[in-house]
Amino acid sequence: MNFTAAQTGVGSSVAPCRRGRVNWTSAQAPPLPGHLHHARNECVDTPASGQRSGVNAQRGTDVRKPGALHVARAVPAGAQEERRASPRPSPPSALGPLAILALDVEFTHLELASSTSNKEQLARPGRSRRALSVATWVCVVDRFGTVPPPLKSYIGLPPDLRTEPCDNADKENGGSGGVVGEARYRVVGGVKEGALRGAPCLAEVRQQVLSLLREGGCKTLVGHGISKDLQSLGINEEADLWAHGVRTCDTMSFPKFQGRGGLSKTLAVLAKEFLGRQIQACRGAHDPEEDARAAMDLYVRHVDYECMVEYETRRLLSRAAAVAAAAEAAQHAGADGGGARGDGHDGDGDAEAEEK
Fold it and tell me: 142: domain CATH number?
């Protein structure tokens, strides 16, 4: 890319150039190739023949609109026609109610205690116990806040863990317990075991989630730590989602939501900072619906532009409707009060006339 004297501040602030060449004012350094910049009447682009036309004929330039977004590089011939012919992505409102979904999974945390015979399979080297987290509660919400959500279900424990309670000695150590062959487990946190009785198995819930995403026309799946949640459900991002046109957005890795040094923040911190909302206030297991709605609102308001426009439009329309309803109610109340006062004055006048 060649730059004229306008780059160094010598001569006029804006100099004409041939097609595919960008000139910059003396107050602005030349951009790196491929970087995006906002033009402020400093980018000029004239025909190769040097013809001058329009309001800028005296300057010999064809200045773009102020604030126009452009790329500081040569534009190949026919690129504009190809760009016009390529289909633009449809706004979320044109894609259907399930175009954007948010998913969250909650877990039941178990502690496995193994005996010497199966220590190699269940215990880490040098330890007699190990922790295990199992997905036991999933929720999928849409961007409209539909109640009830499209999908919310408990997930039963795996068959090898779904056993009868163990002996009294194990109950004294932690309460609910079970026997896995020669190994014992107990619930140490997360979703309570009592809520999982009669819940469908993981394979059934996984199929429900995939059917909702594929058949519902989902294009974007949002979540906080979405890869971990999908992996816990046995869903492969590339094979099960990307191959079917469903992309994922993780609010944990979005730069705007990260702290210093790219450190991720918890969903509760993001909800408080960007939404002014307090979530996960109760100790113990979190409600996946609450977390999924928080992740969805973060995406709608701060990540996706089309969703943000749609959200703000709906919010302004609802606020205008509320203001109009309040004004109408006040007008009716004033009319009723005025009528009552008018009737009272008429009654006083009649009483005075009778006294006279």
Answer: 3.30.420.10
